[in-house]
Structures are given as C-alpha cells and as structure tokens.
Amino acid sequence: NAGVTQTPKFQVLKTGQSMTLQCAQDMNHEYMSWYRQDPGMGLRLIHYSVGAGITDQGEVPNGYNVSRSTTEDFPLRLLSAAPPQTSVYFCASSPEGTVSSYEQYFGPGTRLTVT
Amino acid sequence: GIQVEQSPPDLILQEGANSTLRCNFSDSVNNLQWFHQNPWGQLINLFYIPSGTKQNGRLSATTVATERYSLLYISSSQTTDSGVYFCAVEWRYGGATNKLIFGTGTLLAVQP
After folding, report:
1. Which helix (H) or strand (E) holds A66?
2. Least CA distance to B29: which residue of chain A?
3. pLDDT by residue (tens digit) across A76-89?
4. Do A42 and B100 count as a contact with CB atoms less than 8 A apart?
5. Is B97 within 8 Å of A104 when comparing Cβ atoms?
6. pLDDT by residue (tens digit) across B33-77?
7. Could you say which DSSP state residue A72 is in?
8. Residue B95 Cα to chain centre, angstroms
9. Taking the CB of residue A7, how many other CB atoms lie within 10 A of it?
C-alpha cells in the first residue's frame, strides 16, 4: 500500500490564483481530513469527510472547499489564494467514519506559498 | 473549546539521555495519539493510547485519562529522535463526529 499520498509537494501561487491540492489513500479508509500547519503551531483541522459524498467543516474552513466523490480521493480547493493561506497542508485518513478509536495516518504534506 | 498543552516547548538533550514529554488536556477525550514530526516534515504515528501504558523500543507512553494527561518517555535518546513531538486528542467538536485536536508540540534537539 502507498498509504496516504499528496501532490504536489511544493507550490507557489500568486494572490487570487486558484488551485487544488490532491490527496489519495489506498487503504479503503472512510474518514479523511485536511489540516494546515503554521510555524510554531500544531495542526488545525480545515475540512473532513466521514465517507464518500459527505463533508463537513473543521476549525478553519474559510477560503477552502472540499468534495468527496470517491472513497480514495479528497481534494482541497483554494478558490482565490491569499498570503495567510501560506502553510503546510496535511491530508490524513483513518479506517472508520468517525475518528473515534482509530489511528489517523498522515500524508507527506504540501508546502504552499502565496505571494 | 478544548485546550491541549504540551511541555516543555523546547528541549535539548545530549545523546544517550532520557526525557519525559507531557501533554495536558482540559476536557474529557475519547482517545489520544502521539506523533513525531521529523526534520523533513513527515508526521509519524508513535502511539495510539487512550489509556494505560504502551512501549515500543526506546519509547513508551502513558495516558491517565481521568486526570487528563499523557506522558511520552524517550530513553537513551539518539540524534534521529530530533524533531517535534505532538500529542493529539480526539474530541467531540460541534456535530456528532469526533475530531483530532493537536497540541503545539515539543521541539526536541538531540546533540551528538
């Protein structure tokens, strides 16, 4: 199994550009989520999904959209990038539809810079 | 919301030394995980430990859920242990689904 994969690894955007961060997992996990990590801080939850067709907001959802059309993929869209969205983005998955009682597994991260 | 605090925020060790990292949380949680983020940014699961004690090689962890804390022990530290250690608690946030809430981490540097 490849586990949780993310692309791209690095991205530079200009203010106002849009892009999609890709996340895929091959473990048949129901639960997937996106986090951002800023310097000196822990990870903060952006959006999550408990299964295909179901998504919901986390702590810091503004400026981001998600969709979950398949179990494997959970892309994160930035509609109009802004400098405060400069961060490292992690995708995670776990086996169950809620995170309860199961470990979460993280992808390698995408480092995004918005100028 | 729930507060997850880790201490110390920074730690410098000589290779071979032992250390204890602490994670305190302000509300009841369903579960707790410890992660190591290596200098390349990769997050690695160390322990999934809702309660009790677990050991994996030179690392061990203890969670006392009733007293709202968890401890991570590193023995005979090595330079490869360097990085940031996060605890993350599973907490009911808003709706019916539990979420993983991260602490701010302990930055560990092990010197040869």
Report:
1. strand A64-66
2. A100
3. 999 999 999 999 99
4. no
5. no
6. 999 998 888 888 899 998 999 999 999 999 999 999 999 999 999
7. S
8. 26
9. 13
